[in-house]
Amino acid sequence: MTAITEPEAELLAHFEHTIDRDQRLEPRDWLPEGYRRTMIRQIAQHAHSEIIGMQPEGNWITRAPSLRRKAILLAKVQDEAGHGLYLYSAAETLGADRADLTDRLINGRQKYSSIFNYPTLTFADVGVIGWLVDGAAICNQVPLCRSSYGPYARAMIRICKEESFHQRQGFELLMTMMRGTQGQRDMVQDATNRWWWPSLMMFGPPDAESPNTEQSMAWKVKRHTNDELRQRFVDMSVPQAEVLGVTLPDPKLSWNADREHYDFGAIDWDEFQNVLRGNGPCNTQRVAQRRKASEDGAWVREAAAAHARKKAQGDE
Ligand code: BYC
Known about the structure:
By secondary structure, the protein is mainly alpha-helical. It has helices at residues 8-20, 33-52, 54-58, 67-92, 98-106, 124-141, 150-178, 182-201, 213-218, 226-244, 269-279, 283-296, 298-315; strands at residues 254-256, 261-263. A hairpin with a 4-residue loop joins strand 1 and strand 2. The chain binds benzoyl coenzyme A (BYC). Benzoyl coenzyme A is lined by residues 41-42, 45-46, 49-50, 53, 80, 111, 113-114, 133-134, 137, 140-141, 201-205, 210-213, 216, 222, 226, 276.
């Protein structure tokens, strides 16, 4: 029976049954429009985050303090480009057009993660991004390996493996700096102070103010709420900070024996909303750089398309 002749109720029942059984939805399957829209929104924003996320660290490639650190950083930033590509491809399986997604990014019609609108002021920021930003990303993305949309879930498996590697290289860089001079230790502490709160914001608004969570949980797109994952991240970061010997910049951070979790201070949600509105410290420069890359690359895309056309004609 084809999707055209089967009544919609039956298709919907099949869709829901697939989700109930924890099976994956695939590009060939009939999908409700809302689910398709949600998946394109989340996957596109995720892809944009990976691509924009190349900029803050890319800023340090030419100034890395040794060849080894330069090679590691270069490989990491390149991995992020790869993550963007897997994700744009996953969005294409839902019918999204790659050029249109880029257009939406550079015209501010689609979001990317708030975290990448903060500057990287010293080389310690590279380590702290690996430790906290990649750490938060892993916390958020490991459950997405079980997301209900097959191409997204499978892309996430590889992405998470690479992110784990990134997180460890960040931590190793910070450990090295902490064993160095007082000046280096101060740099690590300063970077930790600047990235801690924005990292907590990566998980999205509090559950009570998250318009998409309920539906995305019902569809098993998301497996945990924003607040659940944020708590998990705080709980795993506190002992890591102790091992490093840095102080997390939150005087309210304390173990709550009843909850068996760390309590933490209030997040500045006005700052988060302000960054989302485009007013963070680096929003303008991040989008401008992406726009320039797109314009500078236009001739390459045109040449590749012309080559493909010619080749197709020749093959006829
Ligand atoms: N920044 O209803 P909610 C990475 C938006 S890549 C900006 O909770 P949802 C990495 C949200 O989109 C990091 N916007 O939404 C890369 C929604 O707006 P719209 C990216 C945010 O989708 C390179 C509105 O706020 N990771 O880690 O249920 C190097 C309401 O939110 C943010 C992903 O994309 C934010 N922080 O949950 C290193 C992971 N938070 O669309 C690392 C996949 C929320 O209604 N995405 N918004 O206009 C997700 O897991 C979910 O989409 C989110 C948000 C948890 C982010």
